[in-house]
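Escalated from tier 1: magnesium ion holo job.
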Amino acid sequence: MSALIAVQNLVKIYRAHRQEVRAVDDVSFEIEEGTTFGLVGESGSGKSTIARCALGLIPLNSGEARFDGRRITGLTERAMRPVRAEMGMVFQNPVAALNPRMTVRDSIAEPLLTHTTVRGRALDDRVGQLLEEVGLDAGFATRLPHQLSGGQSQRVGIARALATRPRLLVLDEPTSALDVSVQAQVLNLLQELRAQYGLTYLMISHDLDVIRYLCDTVGVMRRGQLVESGSAAQVLTSPRHEYTKQLIDAMPEAPGAKPRGADTIPTKLRRTTQ
Ligand code: ADP
Ligand code: MG
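Tier 2 regenerated the structure:
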């Protein structure tokens, strides 16, 4: 196995209102191809910033990010382009992530127009295929974002992220804006897509049930630092760091839910699926 994504000694400092925020403070981790790494931690701990750094979307203060062994830190936009096609990003707020004036078809077609030479009939076919892959009827192609439910919008967001057939998906709280019943369906979809395409996920969530359900390995963020990382089973059932223990204790659901590999949906998410 080899790491698809590797970040090493990542430091990101924001400067705002003459103040410095050390958003990411010397963070290192790797994600093996075909596995899911979960990042947990309280709001403001630096999770989204790590995602942006790992995707090469923002400059770093120090450290580096590698994709498939290739250093992407400091690449020009032009050199980054082909790498970008191998990465997809899914956002927390699916409605805000879509352009309100663009049809579903155009939103999904956009990355294909940017990164591929697929045009005309083949483009429409590919959009139709992507809709089907995320469980939406071909008729959704002509809809506008306001004509979609939250869950449907997120499915479109996933289809868009998958359009260029990336190897990596970065999912930044992809279900936290959705109703609980819809969360389970979207998590199932992500699970299926991962298996079908051998995808690698960087999954950001503050919900340990979501992490438990989907992740092979987990990292725990606190104030810009990765305080603990390891297999999901180890981190979630026998955490070493006091902060991780606090996180687990703070979860409303009793611990002891099965780690990934268990084929059930977490209790909290299962309740309203039927
Ligand atoms: P999380 O995703 O875990 O909630 P973020 O990565 O969004 O955390 O933020 C980490 C820290 O960096 C927070 O203190 C946040 O206020 C700050 N931050 C995030 N983005 C910016 C930005 N563009 N400019 C200034 N500060 C930022
Ligand atoms: Mg965030």
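The longest helix spans residues 180-197.
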